[in-house]
Specification:
The complex is a heterodimer of chains A (about 120) and B (about 110). Chain A has about 120 residues and is mainly β. Chain A is built from no helices and eleven strands. In chain A, strands 2, 4, 5, 6, 9, 10 and 11 form a seven-stranded mixed β-sheet that branches. In chain A, strands 1-3-8-7 form a four-stranded antiparallel β-sheet, with no helix packed on it. Chain A starts with a strand and ends with a strand. The model of chain A has no long low-confidence stretch (mean pLDDT about 95). Chain B is about 0% helix and about 50% strand. In chain B, strands 2, 4, 5, 6, 9, 10 and 11 form a seven-stranded mixed β-sheet that branches. The relative contact order of chain B is 0.34. Classes of the chains: A mainly beta (about 120), B mainly beta (about 110).
Chain lengths: ~120, ~110
Amino acid sequence: EVQLVESGGGLVQPGRSLRLSCAASGFTFDDYAMHWVRQAPGKGLEWVSGISWNSGSIGYADSVRGRFTITRDNAKNSLYLQMNSLRIEDTALYYCAKGWDGYNSVDYWGQGILITVSS
Amino acid sequence: DIQMTQSPSSLSASVGDRVTITCRASQDIRNFLAWFQQKPGKAPKSLIYAASSLHSGVPSKFSGSGSGTDFTLTISSLQPEDSATYYCQQYNSYPLTFGGGTRVEIK
C-alpha cells in the first residue's frame, strides 16, 4: 500500500524558514517523480514544485521560485521542501504527491500538512 | 506559464444526470492533462491522466477526452458520492498548473 506522510508543519513567523518532509513507502521511491501541491484555506489547488526520480529535472511555481527548494533522498525514501523567506500568503495545506507515468502526472497523495505563516 | 480555465465554476445536477466539465489550456498541451476529485476536508484523488486514461480503481462512469487545448471530464450517471470539487491540471511543462475547480452539487 502506497503511503505518503508529511511532517514538519506548524506556525511560523513571516520571513522565517521551515522544512517539510514526506516519508514514502509501499513503492519503489527512486522510480518516480515527486511533487508538492498546496491549498490555501478555502482556495483551489496550487502546484508548488516537482522533482524527477534522479533529481535531474526540477520545477517551481513562480510564486515560490528562489525561496523554496525541493530535494529528495532516495536512500531514505524521503522528499523535502525547504521553505525560506516565508510569507503570509504561503499559509496553506501542503500535500506530497507521487508521480505516475514517467511524466509529471500524479497518482497518490498524502493527507497534507498545515503551514501557517503569521506574526 | 500555461493558464488552465475550467467551466463552469459550479453546477448542480440530479442523480442520474450526465455531467460534463470543460478545461481549456492557454496553449497546446498535447494530452498531458489530468483530472482530480476533492471532497471537503480530504486530500485530492487522482481520476484521469493522459487526458483519457483512468487510474486504477476509478469507476468507469468517469471519462475524459480531448487533446491540444480543449478537454472534458464526463460523469455518465451522477451519484450522491460524486459531490465534490473537480480540478484539471496540465503537466506538459513546468510550472504545472491547475484549473480553478468545478464544484459539483447534487440537486
